[in-house]
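Here is one chain, start to finish.
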Amino acid sequence: MATSFTPPLTSSRSSSLRRRPSRVRRLPAILACLVALPAFGFLAAAAPTATAAPQANARPRLLVVIVLDQFRADNLTRFAPWFSDGGFKRLMREGAVFTDAQYTHATTYTGPGHATISSGSYAHVNGIVGNRWFNPATQRVESVLYDPKADLFGVKAVPKDDDTSPRNFIGDTLGDELRLSNHLQSKVVSVSLKDRAAILLAGKLGKAYWYHEGAGGFISSAYYGDRLPAWVTAFNARKLPDAAFGKRWEKLLPEAAYAVSRQDDFPQENDFQGLGRAFPHTLTDKSGKPTAAFYEAFTATPFSTDYELEFARRAIEEEGLGQDDAPDLLGVSITAPDIAGHAFGPYSQETQDLAVRTDRQLADFFTYLDHRFGRNRTLIALTSDHGATPIPEYMQSLGVDAGRIKKKQLSDALGAALTARYGAADWITTLEDPSVFLNRAVIAEKRLDPAEVERVAGEAALTVPGILRYFTRTQLTSGSLGPSV
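Its structure:
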């Protein structure tokens, strides 16, 4: 899914954002994780009263940070009539709710979002500029957390697609500081179906586990040890995703409830890995057995959230989280809303159905935490890493001026402007959403001022319909971004 965006122009590693957050917004650590979030955040004690934190004599044993990937804030109001009492409503009833917690950076992707959540810093500080970036050392596009020194367990890493360690992340995270505060007595563990989400929630001193469609189960990398723990291997041996083969994702609610969403089958929806555009969505494979394509399709369905939360329960028990006076941290990034959101769009019936199911799945997970630790002993923080714009063609059907920006359209405009000003050359190394990476070698060879080249390219970008503003590497590194949009 694509829509108009504001690309930062860079000849190195950078991102688009506003000024560095002030000290007030960066402290305390847990508050920073909540105030720098997209539109909403919860901080709730698992307690029967509406308090934002447990009382002093009931110090929490476990902090659970839950990130709902691509979960828009308005989901909480649009779908509220169908939520249970024990999920989102419980958090809003018993916790502190941040209703105007906006990111102040434009690169609202999984990587930058999770980096901001875990650290309270932005991409020009922590280096996580997107999901992928052009690595000038290797002269290729790589996944932003790809680390050639950290092999994956069970599968071979692909540089453009696989994240393997937090080494490219600059700084530290809430989990890192928690462990350092008591000489590593606290434990930090993270779980996600996405590698970059798990790695960034775990930080540099925690443990990260993530799902890989090539393995059909949870994996990790050599950054975290020399092998997968036995309990993870045993969990994978249960082959829980395989049990979903042939299952149908059907509507949970009565048909009339979906009137708040767009029609079920919209032409620009994506038939993701054979799931189809309309309900029911059958999880299968043309080969007649689970394959990598099936394991990928699985991540777009509510079955994958059950699977992920079951792994989180096992992680709590097997890693011994919350068992002593040193507080531990569990990060859980729930992936299905993002995969389904990209396939079907935020106003789809699939997004609605998945949000209602996620609410009930979380309610069950909160009940599990209550039974295991007792109320008042778990602190829950819930937010999203980013939202999503509607499918452009859907907005066009409503008479709204919307559309998609083709990369070639943008590169042609920039290349023509730079050639007219400085002469013919390969001015653009690559476009990797949302960044344009300029050719630093050409700039150096022609002995040009990088800041001026960036400015010329940026002004050319503004001639492309849908581009509102640009940010350059020089602006980002110097802090001279000018007035806010």
